Amino acid sequence: ATVVDQSAPLLRAKQGFLDALVERVHDVSAFTRARVLNTWAQMAEQKAIPLSHWLIVCDLAIGRLSDKGGLVRKAAMNLIGTMLGFNPFAPELPTAAFAESLREYEAKLKEMEPTPEPEEEEEGEEKKTPERLEGIDEEGEEEEGNADDSDNVHVKVADGEQEVKEEAEEDAAPAK
């Protein structure tokens, strides 16, 4: 018996084990899915994942990022981070090629950050009431004038714009 003949059952067992792990990533139980992803992460740390399975495992982890279970999503993020940290291709990757894109995306992130609005200016400034609304108090009634006219005036304030709208008078004489 040769060495190749003796290692064949071990290779079949190893391939069966890897296939079982790939299948269990799609298990019904969220706990099982998370534990399988953690197992893949441990294997990546030990450099026990064959090179032929790196893309498969990476695709599985990316697919689990949208899983409904929070534990599974966390395990998937852990697996991706571990795979990036223990990537067997890392020494061969040219970092200079990615440095420019890194600066580009950092600039985009800075542009996307919300700028804090200065609250001190708003407190220091007095809000002026438009002249057309000075005669109307906060409840929408006129301070001066008769009560009949106050029923026909409505004040609408939306998105910082103020608008005065008068309704058509209903007490007009009906046509005969």
How would you describe this structure to a colleague?
The protein is mainly α. It contains 7 helices and 2 strands, in the order αααααααββ. Strands 1-2 form a two-stranded antiparallel sheet. A hairpin with a 2-residue loop joins strand 1 and strand 2 (161-166). Mean pLDDT is 75; it is low at 140-173.
Number of DSSP strands?
A: 2
Instruction: Please give the radius of gyration in angstroms.
Output: 35 Å
What portion of residues belong to β-strands? 5-15%
Task: Name the average pLDDT.
Answer: 75
Question: SSE string, helix = H, strand = E?
Answer: HHHHHHHEE
| Terminal CA distance | 118 Å
Describe the strand arrangement of the main beta sheet, using strand numbers.
Answer: 1-2
Which class of secondary structure composition applies to the elements? Answer: mainly alpha
Gross geometry: flat
Percent helix range: 40-55%
Strand count, sense and barrel status of the largest sheet are:
2 strands, antiparallel
Unreliable segments (pLDDT under 50, ≥5 consecutive)? Answer: 140-173
**Tally the helices: what do you get?**
7
